[in-house]
Amino acid sequence: ISRDKIRNFSIVAHIDHGKSTLADRLIQVTGGLTEREMTAQVLDSMDIERERGITIKAQTVRLDYTAEDGETYILNLMDTPGHVDFTYEVSRCLNACEGSLLVVDASQGVEAQTLANVYQAIDANHEIVPILNKIDLPAAEPERVKEQIEDVIGIDASDAVEMSAKTGLGVPDVLEAIIKRLPPPKDGDENAPLKASLVDAYYDPYMGVVVIVRIMDGVMKKKQRVKMLKTGASYELDRVGYFRPGRLQDADALYPGEVGFLTASIKEVADCAVGDTITDVKRPCEGALPGFKEVQPVVFCGLFPVDAADFDDLRNAMGKLRLNDASFSWEMESSAALGFGFRCGFLGLLHLEIIQERLSREFDLDLIATAPSVVYEMEMRDGSMIELHNPADMPDVMQIMEIREPWISSTIMTPDEYLGGILKLCQERRGLQTDLSYVGTRAMVKYELPLNEVVFDFYDRLKSISKGYASFDYQVKEHRAEDLVKMSILVNEEPVDALSMLVHRSRAEGRGRAMCERLKDLIPRHQFKIPIQAAIGGKVIARETIAAMRKDVTAKCYGGDASRKRKLLDKQKAGKKRMRQFGKVEIPQEAFVAALKMD
Ligand code: GTP
């Protein structure tokens, strides 16, 4: 097939604007799958993704489309992750194609991630076709949203395609727009040495690691010996071919402009650096493809088994997750309070939540997660620099010259009636406003914020203040020196290392008081009085006391039958499993998470 009949494109959209539904429609209409096979959304394959309706790993699919001009085209749809945590994966994916469909929900309009994603597509020099989805909804306002796309994003939306991915209306127009308005792959030389981009990789239990590649120059053949420039590893290719809906189709070779897969004896996804350049061992290409970037975790937390006997199970489970997610990293950690566990690094908060959820759901593990923490840079008096991933490891303050914390630049879009509350929230979190503008009745406000103030419950607060209407997007910007102190929490005079945190001095007292108050409610009464204190160094800055009480859970089933009593006791016993012993005090697992939510 000639190159001018190939279209490589991605769909960029804000979460929930209908990207996956549109992808399904394109697969269905081009005859890829039957209705029944469509029920499981093909591109979003992981359970949690499906449940949350978010796309995490980039997937791709190759479709044959016979156009109105009678010609058959090959459409390679690259599905991009829709969430800020996965920005780097988005950009790799975009670099593998020439155009983007910009999907905007016609009843919602442009949102924060619409912007973030479309700017990435523009950076990747993409041709962009704006698409207004959900025009079946009574609340759809296509004309207004077109204006908004022009005003806010600055691209021509006069011939935006109006459609409904739900009813199928307008889907043929989308297909025609893809072949008429998006360009074919730019020149690539079939006779040049092989140069291919490693777009993504995933672990398949039957085939091992499957790598998604985009060929730039040369030909990639079965049995060819290739090497990866960054990692230096070399492999003999087992299979090459295309992604068809729900299956892989073998081919003898992949040519310039094509997107496809390869398998070799690659052990884990971590061996494949996304963005790496793949070339021929004997006849290597000159220079790597530009823009390779190491992904760095930005949020860390400790994960510990509730039951110490589960430690090996936890280790095995994490190994399995890592097979499929190279951006998840960890090292062993031991905590005086929590025993043996792992210090884990994540790309962001959503990433953290997903991994935690998968560990407890897929591997049935009861875990305690410590407070999420960002990476602090410590400039030491002896001239060295330390990266601190865990507040519990904080060196002696006398040795520290300066502590720097990561700041983000963020964009928030919201209906203007919620703006006041949102500004207040950002202000409370030490935010610095850098811009405020309006598009109709929607406000777009930009803030610089310390990531530390965002990692706990910023999303939740933003959503509740705006009744779910505000959207948020951020990028980590730089580390800045701030007046940060380590706050310890003492329960019954014993510091609980898992609850210690770095806070800005100006926020320490408020945070300390809030923590003590919450812990007071979260820790059940014991038979003795329990003081709860927040302290900086030796100085107590907040204190609460849990009064003593004898806890008799069966008291309230006055004389009820014995089986009812037993049930209650069993229930309490099960509850015990989720408790940890701190000195003489038992703290329920939930207390750790709940204690860290701030108002
Ligand atoms: P992410 O995977 O998180 O990026 O979301 P998405 O953009 O893929 O959104 P998805 O396709 O999952 O659609 C979100 C919701 O909107 C789903 O409940 C869809 O059924 C619904 N939806 C999608 N397209 C339409 C449409 O044209 N009309 C209506 N009424 N609903 C739609």
UniProtKB/TrEMBL annotation:
What name does this protein carry? Elongation factor 4
Gene transcribed to yield this protein: lepA
Q: Which HAMAP family match?
A: LepA (MF_00071)
Q: Which GO terms describe its molecular function?
A: GTP binding; GTPase activity; guanosine tetraphosphate binding; ribosome binding; translation elongation factor activity
Write out the GO biological process terms: positive regulation of translation
Instruction: Say yes or no: keyword GTP-binding present.
Output: yes
Under which EC number(s) is this enzyme classified?
3.6.5.n1
What family is it from?
A: Belongs to the TRAFAC class translation factor GTPase superfamily. Classic translation factor GTPase family. LepA subfamily.
